[in-house]
Amino acid sequence: MTTAATKDIALDADAGRSIWSDASRKLRRDPVAVVCFTVICLYAVIAVVSPLVLSGWADTYNYEQTNKPPSSDYVLGTDTFGRSVFQETLLATNTSMTVAFMANVIAVPLGMLLGAIAGYYGGWVDDAIIWLFTTLAAVPGIIRMIAIKFAFLDKVLFEGTPFAINLDGMAGLYIAIGITSWIGTCRLVRAETMKIRQLDYCLAARSIGTGRFSTLIRHVLPNVAHIGIINFSLGFQGAIGAEVTLSYLGLGVKDVPSWGRMIDASKMDLLLGRWWELTAALVPAFIVILAWNLFGDRLRDALDPKLRNA
After folding, report:
1. Cα–Cα distances in Å, from 132 out to 111, 114, 182, 255, 289?
2. C-alpha 46, offset from chain centre
3. Can you give the CATH number for the domain in which 28 is found?
4. Looking at the predicted structure, is the pLDDT value of residue 241 above 70?
């Protein structure tokens, strides 16, 4: 068999795979994607396990070991109350990963739904949604989140019911990040939906009497799902950065460890030569944000239909 024929068979095999299986295959063959995914999985495991194993960390005061540098007993030293900084870092991983996950659970579906509705229906619906996200986009993201967090101070949603949500705690943090982070997803999905609604299968669905909303749900949203997955991945690093920033400003979580709170607590320690708590917060945050950023770029390349066809 000639080389050209072999290439044709390989191309036919690639064309026969779904976009999801082809993307999975590309990611498995990319060493950077594999390493980043492994790092992300490790952080996820730490986030799940650390609250179970280290549930009593907050009460482990030891005033005879305050502000001790790293040693064999304390890998990353101790804080002002003599507690292990290493254990605090592990617990802070749970806070950041949980907030990032829940914020994207809110932001990505919201952005996809609004973007699909705007792009598919057009007219005044499109104008209203465009006005909404352009108005919000005119205000810097961090200012939007700070304003919402101030509005959430001392507020409890569904107070007096079994479903009460303390908006001044972690729940308010990921809600604030989530409802301010959907704009980018909305814009991308809207543009893609405007192209998809003119394709043959959408026109055929409408010609046989399928309702517009049904066509949107059954034919449009599944074909823009890859945008949601990509933005979910890329949104993780932004949400983690936002959580750290808000916690540093005193508007984040208050009753659990956080990388932002660690940075705030140790901002004056460098003047006294105490570098370990600040380092223990910055390095893990840098690693996980870099891993999500690189993995998100690889995932976007793998799922992009234009690159796949090329």
Report:
1. 12, 10, 11, 34, 29
2. 17
3. 1.10.3720.10
4. yes
